[in-house]
From TrEMBL:
Biological process annotations from GO: intracellular zinc ion homeostasis
GO molecular function, one term: ferrous iron transmembrane transporter activity
Protein name: Protein p34
Domain of life: Bacteria
Compartments in which it is found: Cell membrane
Transmembrane parts of this sequence: 7-29, 41-59, 75-93, 113-131, 152-171
Source taxonomy: Bacteria, Pseudomonadati, Pseudomonadota, Alphaproteobacteria, Rhodobacterales
Residue ranges of domain Cation efflux protein transmembrane in the record: 11-202
Chief location: membrane
Protein family: Belongs to the cation diffusion facilitator (CDF) transporter (TC 2.A.4) family.
Membrane topology: Multi-pass membrane protein
UniProt cross-references to InterPro entries, sorted A to Z: Cation_efflux, Cation_efflux_CTD, Cation_efflux_CTD_sf, Cation_efflux_TM, Cation_efflux_TMD_sf, CDF_Transporter
Length: 295
């Protein structure tokens, strides 16, 4: 089992544990705000399962029907996660509205809050693992899951503070008001996750920093060529797709041109191990005197 799959499976286990703790906290207190926290954790479990499935599909090698691989499956998972986050927010809004209409004082607030704090600590540690390892493994599904959990942690902290204030002040209406604020925060999180994932599905180019590294690598390793132009990039999960035209001298043999291409590919894969590279060799009259000039 790959590291990405192990982490994705771990997210399911952690999600179930955190969900159980938050449901217990809500059952002990009857707090609408704590119920909203538990509803978001329900989404956490569902999206963790979706991420695991997507990562397994994305790991499949290229085949006849998918010659470029299955890497975009992770983006579909991240989009699904964003949609489910938004659905959870709407459910919380409904519970908050019901709480506004029938505010009530909480039962066993201290015990319930302590249990919720424990769940938040577990979530906080795991979201750190997801974001850091997800970036290292270049997994959009893990990173999206981590950012979602981070939002959950932040909203949980707000819930704990708000419920404590409701208990201390005796203002029962603070409980549903806080649930409504949690819902707004979750809506914003869902929009960000969905927007970032859609950019991957739309073949968004690599970042400017990564593009600069690619250009510099081509320039440094293309000795024997004249220039490289029409450089294009896109990313899909852990894969980075790079293609460009390489202009060589007219006297360059096919074998020599092939060696230059091999040297460039090796240098690029040293920087980006998962890169998929396509180079189109052209004669001197195709030069555009722009793009990447060879040092």
């Amino acid at each position: 089992m790959s590291a990405t799959l192990r982490i994705a499976f771990g997210s399911i286990v952690v999600g179930i544990v955190v969900l159980a703790l938050k449901v217990l906290a809500w059952w002990m207190t009857g707090s609408v705000a704590l119920l909203s926290d538990a509803l978001e954790s329900t989404v956490n479990v569902a999206t963790a399962v979706a991420a695991l499935i997507a990562i397994r599909v994305a790991a499949k090698p290229a085949d006849k029907d998918h010659p470029y691989g299955h890497h975009k499956a992770e983006f579909f998972s991240a989009v699904l996660e964003g949609v489910m986050i938004i659905v959870a927010a709407l459910l919380i809004m409904r519970e908050a509205w019901n709480g506004f209409q029938n505010p009530r004082l909480l039962d066993a607030p201290v015990s319930g809050l302590l249990i919720n704090i424990l769940a938040s600590v577990i979530n906080g540690c795991w979201c750190w693992v997801l974001i850091n390892r997800g970036k290292r493994l270049r997994s959009p599904a893990l990173v999206a899951d981590g950012h979602h959990l981070l939002t959950d942690v932040i909203s949980s902290i707000g819930v704990v503070i708000g419920v404590a204030l409701a208990v201390i002040s005796g203002w029962a209406v603070l409980d549903p008001a806080l649930a409504a604020l949690v819902a707004v925060n979750i809506l914003w999180s869902g929009w960000k996750v969905t927007a970032s994932s859609l950019s991957g599905l739309m073949d968004e180019a690599v970042s400017e920093d990564t593009l600069g590294e690619i250009r510099a690598t081509i320039s440094d390793s293309a000795e024997g060529a004249i220039e490289a132009h029409d450089l294009r990039t896109r990313h899909a999960g852990p894969k980075t797709f790079i293609d460009f035209h390489l202009v060589v001298d007219g006297a360059t043999t096919v074998d020599a041109a092939h060696q230059i291409c091999d040297r460039i590919e090796q240098a690029l894969k040293t920087r980006l191990p998962e890169a998929m590279i396509t180079i189109h060799v052209e004669p001197p009259h195709k030069a555009k005197h722009s793009g990447v000039l060879v040092i």
